[in-house]
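To whoever picks this up:

The nightly regression suite flagged Type IX secretion system protein PorV domain-containing protein as changed. Nothing in the input moved, so I suspect the structure step. Input below, exactly as stored in the fixture:
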Amino acid sequence: MKKVIFSFLFFISICTIAQTARKYSNEFLNIGVDARSLGMSNAVVALTGDVNSGYWNPSGLLSLEDNQASFMHAAYFANIANYDYLAFAMPIDEKSAVGFSLIRFGVDDILDTTSLVDADGNIDYTRINLFSAADYAFTFSYARTTGIEGLRFGANAKVIRRVIGDFASSWGFGFDAGLQYTHKQWQFGAMVRDITTSFNAWSVEEFEVGDLNGDGIPDEDQIPQLRDQELPETTEITIPKLQFGAARSFELNSKFSLQTELDMIVRFVETNDVISTSAMSATPAFGFELDYNKLVFLRGGVGNFQNIRQFDDSEEIGFQPNFGVGFQYKGITIDYALTDIGDQSAAIYSNVFSVKLDWSIFR
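Regenerated output under the current build:
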């Protein structure tokens, strides 16, 4: 067990070596899943304990008592982009559990006008095609208990597929690792995404400069601004991201209970997070969940504290408040989250719905 903990801390320590990597890569994997968690501003790394733990902290899969499945759909940018998530998890025995998940973030029915002009220079609208720009992530999760009471660990192996019509595509892979520790009413958690850094290799379709009509003859005289364009880089490295936090459960009375969690989300690169240096940046997140008789749930949270530059070149701190409700009955859970209430930050916001099914409903 000491070797496991040492390895976990070692991988955290090497995160600072990846300063040459891009600040933002595979960002669709940082949006989050599950309306319950989004309603709590993603502050769930210690509390998570269901099928969605495969995303937030695979250690939480050990809290499963039966097989579970989950589905979520959200629309962003006035329904231009669709975000979908599907997951399944099951306990293997008292000491281990596994999970599988699929995430897709895509913009569909984009107009392809590269062949709009025919070989004679005429505009032909029948030559317009449609394509999609979509990102996919396939994740396998595994969790296991340790010899230390209350301590458990988990890991993810993920395959990433990104497609931009017939123009470009990539394959990538990466690993995540997480820990959870429970002591009485307190829960602690840590999750490192892309712990060994994640790698994407792109294949980009080459086009002749200025050859918009596809006749093989460059039209450089007509479109001089394209002469100096170069193909983008064909490899991407996603640097690690650390999220850790502490949670506390309160039994208010026989029918009401409250769960709260405070997290810190750390990137090992300089960004506009409220805490930022040349080596790292961090932003806090806080969430709570109040439930009545484990039947009805009220959730809220605040996070994503950013230094936002204004038009007059000054900076103000923006934040993202979230709100959510849920209902659970006989193994069926329906959750709703409203993110970025009042547009208090520059982040995207949406109405999010998710459904979770416990296999107990089939017995």
